[in-house]
Design brief:
The structure holds two protein chains of two kinds. Chain A is mainly alpha-helical. Chain A has four helices and no strands. Chain A is extended and about 60 Å long. By secondary structure, chain B is mostly helical. In chain B, helix 3 packs antiparallel against helix 4. The two termini of chain B are 29 Å apart. The chains are: A mainly alpha, B mainly alpha. At the A-B interface, helix 1, helix 2, helix 3 and helix 4 of A face helix 1, helix 2, helix 3, helix 4 and helix 5 of B.
Chain lengths: 103, 242
């Protein structure tokens, strides 16, 4: 990866994120009243995280089977409301064991 | 008076700092293991201070996505900060001038927003500085720790860590989906559409960055129409997320 590409990319990420936070703080004082818009914004994190996870998660390790097992482990741990780190490490550990076993 | 405001901010920021440390450590680990240089990983955390956004951004950089895709997906993922910033802005005291506002707005995250709306008093720039600096230290410190830890990790373990990022997304989405039917349907719709965009003949020609944006906007719009929320709530299950 070229350094210039990374630097420009990081500047784009930081710039867009900052502008979103800065514009209402500095320029807007009016409250958003629209229920639809509030609801839309409420659902955005769930929609985006789900879309990024499936089906990409199944090709995120050395083999499809280990990824499926790892994903299953994550779903179970998340269902029982373990912390983010536990779920992430649990998924990786499950995938790791499957790969060590040779699958 | 000013000192007490700052100390109040630090005190309220400590739980956020600890929560951030573990999440950003996972970010540091996964980004470096996916091929992001250590310096770039740390720089992303220092300049962005947003979990879902920088995870997605880093993923797209690694996939050599275009800058337009990158900017647009950062916009979509982080647009919720617009609302939060708006509400912090209304609660800020009159002494907060434009320069202080420019600085404070850098640190509006889900958690910092949640803590600041719970505060009884109007928000001073001094209080916000204590709150944001404490949280920021946790975020950057965790990233540095995670990024450096990867160099002492064996190869076979490293290849399994690629799934950790998705594990974290699953951990954010599943608990609220379990409790709220509206969130559950949002997740189901988004997953189904995402499979469609990956495997259906015409749809799979669209790049993954644009597919994510199209899915997010259409599913959130559908959910907002089917399940409007009367009072604004912070997304549940975000307690360890930025």
């Amino acid at each position: 990866m070229k350094i210039s590409y990374i630097l420009i990319g990081i500047a784009v990420m930081a710039g867009v994120t900052y502008l979103i936070r800065m514009i209402p703080m500095v320029f807007f004082r009016k409250k958003i009243e629209s229920v639809w818009l509030q609801s839309f914004l409420y659902y955005v994190p769930y929609a985006v995280l789900t879309a990024m996870t499936f089906p990409a998660v199944f090709s995120s390790t050395g083999s499809t089977l280990s990824a499926i097992i790892g994903c299953g482990a994550a779903l179970i741990l998340a269902f029982f409301e373990r912390s983010l780190l536990i779920v992430a490490v649990g998924a990786a550990a499950a995938a790791f064991i499957v790969q060590i076993l040779g699958f | 008076m000013k000192k007490k405001e700052f100390l109040d901010g630090i005190k309220d920021g400590i739980p956020i700092c600890l929560g951030y440390f573990s999440v950003s450590m996972a970010f540091g680990l996964t980004a470096v293991l996916s091929g992001m240089p250590v310096w770039a990983t740390i720089l992303i955390s220092m300049t962005n201070l947003t979990s879902a956004g920088q995870f997605a951004g880093a993923t797209q950089l690694l996939a050599h996505g275009s800058m337009i895709e990158l900017a647009f997906s950062m916009f979509i993922i982080n647009i919720r900060y617009f609302l939060m910033s708006l509400s912090v802005s209304q609660k800020s005291d009159s002494k907060m001038n434009i320069f202080k506002r420019l600085a404070v707005s850098f640190g509006i995250t889900d958690e910092i927003f949640a803590v600041s709306v719970q505060r009884k008093k109007a928000l001073s720039a001094t209080y916000m500085a204590g709150l944001i600096l404490t949280s920021y230290l946790g975020w950057v410190g965790g990233t540095v720790t995670g990024a450096i830890a990867t160099s002492i990790m064996p190869e076979v373990l490293a290849s399994s860590m690629g799934i950790a990022l998705y594990g974290m997304f699953i951990a954010i989405v599943i608990p609220p989906a379990k409790r709220q039917r509206n969130v559950m349907w949002t997740v189901i719709f988004a997953a189904l559409l995402s499979f469609a965009f990956n495997y259906l003949p015409l749809l799979s020609k669209i790049s993954s960055g644009w597919a994510t944006i199209i899915i997010t906007v259409s599913v959130s719009a559908l959910a907002a129409t089917l399940f409007p929320i009367i009072t604004i709530k912070k997304p549940e299950g975000d307690s360890h997320e930025n």
